[in-house]
Amino acid sequence: MLGVATAMSSGRSIVVQGTVGKAEDVVVFLPPAGSITSPYFPIGACLPDTLPAVHCEMPGRGRTAGEQTPGSVHGAVDRWADELAALLPGRRLHLFGHSLGALFAYELAIRFEDRSGTEAASLSASGAREPGSTPRSLVATAFAALRGQRGTTDKEGDREGAWLTDDLRLRQEYVTAKQPIRAPLALFCGISDPFARPAEMEEWKRFTKGPWLGMFTFPGGHDYYLSGQESIAAEISQIVDRSQDPERMGVENDG
Question: Exposed, middle or buried by CB within 10 Å (0-12, 13-18, 19+), for 44?
């Protein structure tokens, strides 16, 4: 199991969990709206020792509070793409993003298709409708859920509420060319998610020319990933294993 995440150099918006070393495959987690530290650490801790994880965090918060906050989805992704390429040259990156993070992951996959040396080996989109869809932004409901999960004080809640509002604005202003990617696609969803229902998430299949790896559903709603981390990590590990063997990859997507 991977240990507690350890930050790299200050000013870098990426946290490494485990030992990258000579690992050929790395899981990259992209943050959901309102996140300061990665909520995926418990999932990363359930991955095999041979499969390290890195967590992209929004600049301008927490340990990078003195930095400028990106003004768009594309601005955030451009920074992460540069840092990941520098930190993990030649690696196969398996992108996992929940909610707003799914859009981050998709845009990151596009950037790596235009770069040499680092590959988006798979894209796992979680709890989000397809790029270009009209967002369902229920700020009050999302804010209440965020505070309830973290047990924040009023002051902390106000700060995290402001981050959530900023991120929901990024989602509302997000524009994409709807470019299909080559990376294989997997979908993750809570079976009772009111924001991105499993049937709605099928539209993601139009955004890849690569193999279709399947829909993985879990008990719970929009924040299903905060529990059952072992099951989620097991599915991610299987996706990585299948990506190393084309015969096990999945069915070609006719999107």
Answer: buried
94-143 residue pLDDT tens? 999 999 999 999 999 999 987 777 889 999 999 999 999 987 655 445 54
Q: Kindly state the tokens that stand for 217.
A: 């559903």
Rg from Cα positions in the chain:
17
Q: Which of 31, 51, 163 is nearest to 108 (CA)?
A: 31
> Whole-prediction pTM value?
0.87
- C-beta separation of 121 from 183 below 8 A: yes
HEC-encoded secondary structure of the chain: CCCCCEECCCCCCEEEECCCCCCCEEEEEECCCCCCCCCCHHHHCCCCCCCCEEEECCCCCHHHCCCCCCCCHHHHHHHHHHHHHHHCCCCEEEEEEECHHHHHHHHHHHHHHCCCCCEEEEEEEECCCCCCCCCCCCHHHHHHHHHHHHCCCHHHHHHHHHHHHHHHHHHHHCCCCCCCECCCEEEEEECCCCCCCHHHHHHHHHHECCEEEEEEEECCCCCHHHCCHHHHHHHHHHHHHHHCCHHHCCEECCC
Separation between Cα atoms, residue 73 and residue 71, nearest integer Å: 7
